[in-house]
Amino acid sequence: MNSIFYSYKKQAGCILLFLLCIACAPLGTRPSDEDVKRFTSSKNYNAETAQFQNRIPNIMEAMNKRIYSWDAIKEWMAGVEQGRPPQRMPVVRSDLNAFKDKGEGLKIIWLGHSSFLLSMNGAVILVDPIFSEAASPVSFAVKRFQEPPIPLSSLPPIDYILISHDHYDHLDMKTVQYFSDHQTQFVVPLGIKGHLAGWGISSDRVVEKDWWEAAVFPQVTFTATPAQHFSGRDGIHQNETLWASWVIQSDNHKVYFSGDSGYDTHFKTIGDKMGPFDVVFLDSGQYNQKWREVHMMPEEAMTAAKELKAKYHFPVHWGMFELALHDWDEPVRRILAHQTEDSVPVLTPRLGEVVLLPNPAAQTRWWESLN
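Now predict its structure.
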């Protein structure tokens, strides 16, 4: 009898351990002691706090007081009238043959939020991909508006996956795991290699970079550049991995992706050092006055596009998840409402639509037909 009880107890323990592993896996892997020693050589790492930091080291303190206040709680409880689209957003069936064509043009497919595909110089790049049902460690929270315009299984062969930081709406475990048996190369900021290793990506397929460091490949070069944000996946251990914006450069084209970032002097610095850019993908949604340190207001994104010396401004970080207290389409409406003659032209393609630069098709206000 004791042996039977022990057997059941052992099986129950194994099942519990298995369930805990499933629950904890999306949280990722914290940096090892060896990683921490390596990070100390970074100018962006504070060895005393064992955290990465922004250009203004304590910029988050005042923001956190505003966020964790009774006024903020009341705002969240009230919600917004149109946090999600009232009906399905229009989707264009992507012409992947045209997208993969190795001509000299720069091709883009927006997948929603901050996820997009780039085709440049024969390389196919997937940026901050999230194909899961939800941008959270559990499937019932922060659910996407609708399925991605291209299923994971229908993607063209991906040469590189570029990650800006480790938040759930930018680094998705299930999407990463899908590529575990592919040859895709990952390019990430410092510390994120640990997450990928825990999800089955071999270390030889991951290149980690600090701000202003470049990852050089035959077709393209990725340069990590500053951003003003934060990191963390468990709500407790914050800023143990770095966040970054990225410059992506080929022989004929140069692209900038802000990742998540509040407005700061780094945009002008990057524009002066590395601009001009064919197109800049800028964090333009999920904003609020209470946390503007980490997400730009639409008008700030417009200023950043000019400082980056961009030919086109492509607003991202909207159109797939409800993460802030504004209407789902307010970011793009607000940007277009403030356009002037000297503003950077804005690209507003439908989901799945192939955008070809330097001569994009006429842009439509497709969101207006949904309201």
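The two ends are 67 Å apart (CA to CA).
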